[in-house]
Amino acid sequence: MTDDLATETATLTHTAALARLGHALSDETRARVLLSLREAPAYPSDLAASLGVSRQVMSNQLACLRGCGLVEAVPDGRRTSYRLASEHLAPALGDLLRLVLVVDPACCSGDDCTCA
What we know:
Blueprint: H1 3-25, H2 28-39, H3 44-51, H4 55-67, E1 71-76, E2 79-84, H5 89-98
Antiparallel strand pairs: 1-2
Helix pairs in contact: 2-5, 3-4
InterPro entries: ArsR-like_HTH (IPR011991), HTH_ArsR_DNA-bd_dom (IPR001845), HTH_Metal-responsive_Reg (IPR052543), WH-like_DNA-bd_sf (IPR036388), WH_DNA-bd_sf (IPR036390)
GO molecular function, one term: cadmium ion sensor activity
Protein name: ArsR family transcriptional regulator
């Protein structure tokens, strides 16, 4: 593999990973799940209760996060807990939380986003 091809492949891989993370963070419930799992692994029922959503909503959000490769299921007897899929994800989320953006209040206000 040439250096250019290797660089292009790495860039595409990184782009796909960032797109998955962006998709996960684009939903408030998924973002809250990731932040909760940043603190410690948890059971879906406990996550649902702490975030104030139904178990079905939590199941759907965890399935999405699993599909994005961001969380993993950990069998625990008859139950399954969830944790972040990478040890690097918790510090990355922490870095994102420390990021300060200057936001135009007229832009990106929900469904009326004018940035596109």
